[in-house]
């Protein structure tokens, strides 16, 4: 590569002159004739030349503009014509691939359309068009993805007009697999039927949603359904706090007591535990329910158990649920009984939908930064860009920045 090619990033160029005005103007021309684009011959003559102006990266705070002298060749061997090719610059484009990728990465990183139009001397519509072009390239890369082995399913709010959307997460690789509008089986049916290699899914992690459980049974019949640990523990606490409200409405409003009731017993200091027991002594039924709740939560937090240990723990869980059936927490016992298999399966795995909830926080930030979305496909593309396509970003960058970019 020539010195000019090393500095500019495009090989085979000879700089004729450089001028600085509002930006950096570089006049250049190729210093070597390429082989014929059709027959790879070297017996060429220059038929004509023409000028081409291309925006190419930024140096400091100034846009570097290339004024290229482009020869048109005639091959005496095959008697065909072709124009001089430049690596990293497509025919009839007025900007290099490096420049387009620079704009895309800046906008993807949070720089607004208005700011980019000022710093890179292009219109906001052009920025959006380049951004959509790179997203489309990524989408084509991901069009034939097989289903992940460990799949997390959860819902999140999109807009008041369009309602909720369903998030599918590859929990093994910690990336969003896809986002689809709707959370019912009829709305997700076309997408789920078109999924490739649904038999690859071995584990489906979800909250205690009957809708998602029926979807998993119908479209992933060979997968093991695993309840999400966080949602199970939260459900237990919600039912207990509701019973507490019935027994002592005044105490339920005490923020200090609420904090002690919600926390795990092993996270309380001796003084805090003594104060809580002193309060519960005046409500014997509530005290027994609190002790049962703590035992139940301990069982829910178990994970990575062997099959032998899980079988030993199962009688304890069944005994607790029998006790709850004859108590004010009978509704909780009924729900846990209907989800007994996914809860027991939860003991065998360490994965949970905590990864999915983290992605939901990130999606909310994406939506806030854009001041909301009306078009779901635009929202979906941005979510997949930020949360789901890390594995192929390097491949796309290599396409846009060939090895000669150095």
TrEMBL record:
It comes from the Bacteria. Residues 33-78 form the Transposase IS204/IS1001/IS1096/IS1165 zinc-finger domain. Residues 151-383 form the Transposase IS204/IS1001/IS1096/IS1165 DDE domain. NCBIfam families: transpos_ISL3. This is ISL3 family transposase. The lineage of its organism: Bacteria, Pseudomonadati, Pseudomonadota, Gammaproteobacteria, Cellvibrionales.
């Amino acid at each position: 590569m020539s010195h000019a090619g090393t500095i500019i990033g495009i090989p085979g160029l000879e700089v004729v002159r450089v001028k600085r005005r509002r930006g950096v103007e570089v006049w250049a021309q190729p210093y070597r004739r390429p082989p014929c684009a059709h027959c790879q011959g070297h017996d060429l003559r220059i038929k004509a030349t023409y000028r081409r102006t291309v925006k190419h990266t930024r140096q400091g705070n100034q846009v570097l503009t290339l004024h290229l002298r482009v020869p048109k060749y005639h091959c005496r061997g095959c008697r065909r014509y072709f124009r001089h090719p430049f690596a990293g610059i497509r025919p009839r484009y007025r900007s290099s691939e490096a420049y387009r990728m620079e704009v895309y990465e800046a906008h993807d990183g949070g720089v607004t359309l208005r700011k980019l139009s000022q710093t890179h001397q292009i219109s906001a519509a052009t920025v959006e068009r380049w951004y959509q072009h790179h997203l489309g390239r990524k989408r084509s890369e991901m069009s034939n993805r097989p289903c992940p082995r460990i799949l997390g399913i959860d819902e999140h709010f999109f807009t008041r007009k369009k309602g909720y959307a369903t998030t599918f997460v590859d929990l093994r690789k910690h990336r969003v697999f896809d986002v689809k509008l709707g959370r019912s089986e009829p709305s997700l049916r076309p997408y789920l039927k078109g999924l490739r290699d649904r038999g690859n899914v071995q584990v489906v992690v979800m909250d205690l949603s009957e809708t998602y459980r029926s979807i998993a049974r119908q479209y992933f019949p060979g997968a093991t359904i695993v309840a999400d640990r966080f949602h199970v523990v939260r459900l237990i606490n919600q039912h207990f706090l509701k019973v507490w409200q019935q027994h002592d409405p005044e105490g339920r409003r005490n923020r200090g007591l609420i904090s002690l009731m919600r926390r795990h017993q092993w996270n309380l200091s001796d003084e805090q535990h003594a104060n809580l027991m002193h309060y519960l002594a005046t409500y014997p039924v509530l005290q027994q329910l609190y002790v049962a709740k703590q035992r139940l939560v301990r069982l829910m937090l178990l994970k990575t158990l062997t099959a032998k240990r899980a079988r030993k723990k199962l009688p304890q869980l069944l005994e607790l649920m029998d006790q709850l059936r004859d108590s004010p927490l009978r509704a909780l016992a009924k729900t846990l009984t209907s989800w007994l298999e996914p809860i027991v399966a939860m003991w065998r795995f360490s994965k949970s939908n905590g990864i999915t909830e983290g992605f939901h926080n990130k999606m909310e930030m994406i939506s806030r930064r854009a001041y909301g979305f009306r078009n779901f496909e635009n929202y979906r593309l941005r979510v997949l860009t930020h949360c789901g396509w890390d594995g192929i970003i390097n491949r796309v960058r290599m396409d846009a920045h060939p090895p000669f970019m150095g």
